[in-house]
Write a structure and sequence with these properties.
CATH class: Alpha Beta
Shape: globular
Radius of gyration: 15 Å
CATH superfamily: START domain
Number of helices: 5
Strand order of the largest sheet: 1-7-6-5-4-3-2
Largest sheet: 7 strands, antiparallel
Structural class: alpha+beta
Helix content: 25-40%
CATH topology: Alpha-D-Glucose-1,6-Bisphosphate, Chain A, domain 4
Number of strands: 7
Distance between the termini: 50 Å
């Protein structure tokens, strides 16, 4: 198996088009006061504990479920290309650990085409994460982001 097909088989991808300019979508991803409004599935509250938005910088967010239980998501930024790409290691304890998340932004007039990749260490781990609800979970997160962006655009 080639490295390219192996990478494809270890990656889960979601794509969205947001009705918001790329600068606003970028700010939603990079400013802690915005992240707290949409990060996490619907019904969760997010507290930004740490957010050092630079290559090598650490981020840590605590999400509280409606029943009061908390879990932590954290990682280290590995690539930042202004208005284009944000790559990071990521652990979503206790469900998912040792993945790379890739947020890719593409300007499309007043809209933003967005691609989210989650790269797993093995094909088996990738399949397990998909079966555990990757698409529903992250789909819910990006629905919240879409709602947040829509509110920001309406307020302008």
């Amino acid at each position: 198996m080639s490295n390219t097909s192996d990478l494809i088989n270890r990656t889960l991808t979601l794509k969205r088009t947001f009705n918001a300019p790329i600068q606003l979508v970028w700010e939603a991803w990079t400013q802690p006061e915005h992240i707290a409004n949409w990060w996490g599935p619907k019904g969760m509250k997010t507290r930004v504990v740490q957010h050092n938005f630079s290559v090598g910088g650490k981020w840590e967010y605590v999400m509280q479920m409606p029943d009061g239980k908390e879990f932590t998501s954290e990682g280290v930024y590995t690539l930042i290309e202004e208005l284009s790409k944000i790559f990071s290691s990521a652990d979503f304890k206790p469900m998912t650990e040792g993945v790379e998340i890739q947020a890719i932004f593409e300007e499309d007039g007043d809209k933003t085409n967005f691609t989210f990749n989650c790269v797993h260490a093995t094909v088996e781990y990738c399949k397990q994460q998909e079966e555990m609800g990757f698409y529903n979970g992250w789909g819910s997160v990006f629905n919240r982001l879409d709602e947040f962006l829509t509110a920001l655009v309406s307020a302008e």
